[in-house]
Write a structure and sequence with these properties.
Rossmann fold; 140 residues; globular; alpha/beta; 4-stranded parallel beta sheet; 4 helices
Length: 140
């Protein structure tokens, strides 16, 4: 059975899209091949790794990459943007994409505060991403 490829796209590929990739792989890796990318990729945020490790998901093997790595080269059944900036700036015609969706999720890296307050925000966003994946899996 061929698995459907899903690409999660955000601006930096440092938090939300990385979380979504890991959750989908964990929850439905038997049905989907999960990928993530960014319009302007930066390193995966250390608090992304910490928040995900707290729920037993290790991001080893995941890395930040540009959407150009996939655009026009890989067919995706779903392209899911997870931030307003990526949704706004992603080409409206993305070659090789079946269905495009948008989930507007806050960027935890933009949150200002102490390290503990920032970690709390990464945890909150992690839980939002997990809920979005769970909801979506009930519909596909």
């Amino acid at each position: 059975m061929t698995k459907t490829r899903v690409l999660f796209l955000c601006t930096g590929n440092a938090a939300r899209s990385q979380m979504a990739e890991a959750f989908l792989r964990h929850m439905a890796g038997d049905r989907f091949d999960a990928f993530s990318a960014g319009l302007e990729p930066v390193e995966i945020h250390p608090l992304t790794r910490k928040a995900m490790s707290e729920v037993g998901l290790d991001l080893n093997g995941q890395y930040s990459k540009s959407v150009t790595k996939y655009m026009g080269k890989v067919h995706f059944g779903y392209l899911i943007t997870v931030c307003a900036n990526a949704d706004k700036h992603c080409p409206t015609t993305f070659p090789g994409v079946g269905q495009r969706m948008h989930w507007d999720i806050d960027d935890p890296a933009a949150f200002q505060g102490s390290k503990e307050e920032r970690l709390k925000e990464f945890r909150r966003v992690r839980d939002v991403v997990k809920s979005k994946i769970e909801e979506w899996l009930r519909t596909v």
